[in-house]
Amino acid sequence: MRDDGSARLSLSYKGARQNGINRISYEISATDLVQLVLFEAAIGLRDALGAHRRGELALDGLVLKYGAGDRDLLSFDRQLGFSSQTAFCPLKEFHAAMAEVTESCLARAETSKHGASLKGSLAQCRIPETLLAGMSPDIADQILYRLREMALLILAEDVASRGSALARELRGRKTQKDAVEMIEAVLLSLVNEFVDDEDFRRDDCARLLEPSEKY
């Protein structure tokens, strides 16, 4: 990962009908790298919650797919002109490789122009108890911790964009309350998406308390 937030994604693989090792190489912008981090975080959180479903991230010339076949594999489809490459990566390796990238993206978000305000507001956000009903306090705290990290990345990208309504509210002394409400809305939407789910099985929440890769 570079200082400007961009990076080069590189994946070595062996083709089914080819000798030797091939490689998928892809230059990824800072904005797309955040999307990749969010995609990886969503996979990890859904797996931890037992809410398995298909997922896809489409970038310019690269598509990542999860859950279409083997649930333990992530597919990479690289399209460059008329040529294409497809490779597969075990999810455990993907999570491990993304751990440092995630930390770097979070650090960039926290030190961005409004990062401290966003992080502080997210820490104070109240979530309706009914959405976390039936969970132990420790499990609920871990879920919210991960969701707050995802929300911080989303919000930091938003306020950095030109014409951001949230950035405007954060700059105004009289509009701080409106800014907090907008921040809460983003976090609540994530809670609804990942926790209030028909496929959610509360028994699988116990895995959140086990040592694992930090998503």
The description of the largest β-sheet is: 4 strands, antiparallel
Number of structural units classed as domains: 1
How would you sum up the global shape? globular
Alpha carbon gap, first and last residue: 17 Å
Listing every helix as H and every strand as E from the N terminus to the C terminus, the arrangement reads: EEHEEEEHHHHH
The total of helices stands at 6
The share of residues in extended strands comes to 15-25%
What does this structure look like?
The chain is α+β, with helices and mostly antiparallel strands and 215 residues long. The chain has one domain (7-209). It is 47% helix and 19% strand. The chain is built from 6 helices and 6 strands, in the order ββαββββααααα. The chain has helices at 30-49, 91-110, 115-124, 137-160, 165-171, 176-194; strands at 7-13, 22-28, 55-59, 62-66, 73-80, 83-90. The chain has a 4-stranded antiparallel beta sheet with strand order 3-4-5-6. Strands 1-2 form a two-stranded antiparallel ribbon. Helix 2 (91-110) packs across helix 4. The longest helix is centred in the last third of the chain and has 24 residues, at 137-160. The model is unreliable at 198-215 (pLDDT under 50).
